[in-house]
Amino acid sequence: MPRFAANLTMLFNEQAFLDRFEAAARSGFTAVEFLFPYDHPAEEIRRRLDENQLTLVLHNLPAGDWAAGERGIACLPDRVEEFRAGVARAIEHATALGVEQPNCRAGKAPAGADPAALRATFIDNLRYAAGELKRAGLKLLIEPINTFDIPGFYLTHTAQALEIIDAVGADNLYVQYDTYHMQRMEGELAATIAKQLPRIAHIQLADNPGRNEPGTGEINYDFLFTHLDKIGYAGWIGCEYKPATTTEAGLGWMRRQ
After folding, report:
1. Is residue 81 within 8 Å of residue 57, measured between CB atoms?
2. Distance between CA atoms of 98 and 108, rounded to whole angstroms?
3. Among candidates 240, 252, 253, which has minimal Cα distance to 11?
4. Phi, psi angle pair for 4, to nearest 5°
5. Which residue ranges form the domains of the chain, and what is each CATH number?
6. Which residues are catalytic?
């Protein structure tokens, strides 16, 4: 039986962020995820989780100036010091909030940047982050993202993520596999997940086109959920989609599972 986590960055966004925890629990979720925990005191987020009997399964490392369009800094040679400070901050929050596997966003490759320098920086940063997280008893995730939604994003395909993981050489570094992003970039969702299952620690979903809830696009999620059960995927599935209308109106797909 799939285990779904509500992505509070995108779901229940009719409400203020701290009110979304209760809304998620009322709608039947037992777990949540979101992009960043850093805008609210960890104690307040912890209180909302506990009051609503929710598990927080994922948040991201600090990713630069999000409001200005940055989508991560891990591949940027001139931001290494900032990245390392962000690792410490992420560990502090993950430990306080019970998150076992924070995600690291690679970031966008600057125009004209040396590909070799970006790759070397990304690998070095991941090696550092994985080491720090391992000391805290945590896994580290990296996520390929499509370049239609985020032009210039550095990490774009499953094979690239796996090659980077091999180069880092850390046994606590895994793939976060987003079915929406990978449908846009490469397809072959079921076969890829089955082949790489031991290296995938978290899955996210949205349908394509539109990035709305399952059942609104081309991905056969009824098949995919059955497939995940069949191959033994035991992790969480983060619901990181844009509700076509309201969150509550679009939850029929989950209640059928």
Report:
1. no
2. 29
3. 240
4. -105, 140
5. 3-255 (3.20.20.150)
6. 143, 240
Q: Is 186 exposed, middle or buried (0-12, 13-18, 19+ CB in 10 A)?
A: middle
Spatial separation of the C-alpha atoms in residues 119 and 110, rounded to whole Å: 13
Q: If you search the block for the tokens 């991201």, which residue do you land on?
A: 60
Mean pLDDT in runs of 10 for the chain (257 residues)?
A: 95 97 98 98 98 98 97 98 98 98 98 97 98 98 98 98 98 98 98 98 98 98 97 98 97 92
- What residues are paired with 202 via a beta bridge? 176
